[in-house]
Amino acid sequence: ETPHLIAAMLIVGGVVLLFVDRFAPAPRYEDPTRIPMPVALGIGLFQCLAMVPGTSRSGATIVGGLLMGVGKRAAAEFSFFLSMPTMAGAFGYDLYKNHDVLDLSAMGDIAVGFAVAFVAAVVVVKWLLNFVSKHG
C-alpha cells in the first residue's frame, strides 16, 4: 500500500471512467432491479478490482455496469445497492477484529456513528443519483 500505487490507481481509475463514459456500449438495462443475474455477477467481479489500493469500489462497479450495457443512473444505483452488504461485512469484520479493545461503553458511540453515517450516506446517494440523472 504505497502512496505511489494509490496515486497511480486514482489517476488510472479517473482515466478509465472518462474513457468508458465516452465509449461504453448503448445501455440495455435502465432499471437496476431488472439487471440479469449474469450481468450482476459481472459487475460484482468488477468490485474485486477495489482490492487494489487506491481503486474506487464504486468507480469499479460503475465502470463494470457501463461496459455491460447498464445505463448511467442504473449503474450508479446498482453500485450503491452492491455497497450495502460490502460495507456491512467490512463493519462486522472490523468489530470482530477489534473486539478485544472494545468495551460496552464504546457501543453507544459506535451506534451513533453508524446512524449518522447511514443518514449522511442516504442524503449523498439521493443527491448523486439526481445529479447523474440530470447531467449524465
TrEMBL record:
It catalyses: di-trans,octa-cis-undecaprenyl diphosphate + H2O = di-trans,octa-cis-undecaprenyl phosphate + phosphate + H(+). It is a multi-pass membrane protein. The chain crosses the membrane at residues 6-23, 74-96, 108-129. It is an enzyme of class 3 (hydrolase). GO terms for cellular component: plasma membrane. InterPro entries: UppP (IPR003824). The keyword Transmembrane helix applies. The keyword Amino-acid biosynthesis does not apply. Keywords: Antibiotic resistance, Cell membrane, Hydrolase, Membrane, Transmembrane, Transmembrane helix. Its EC number is 3.6.1.27. It is found in: Cell membrane. GO terms for molecular function: undecaprenyl-diphosphatase activity. It comes from the Bacteria. GO terms for biological process: response to antibiotic. Pfam families: BacA. Its main location: membrane. Belongs to the UppP family. This is Undecaprenyl-diphosphatase. The lineage of its organism: Bacteria, Pseudomonadati, Pseudomonadota, Alphaproteobacteria, Rhodobacterales.
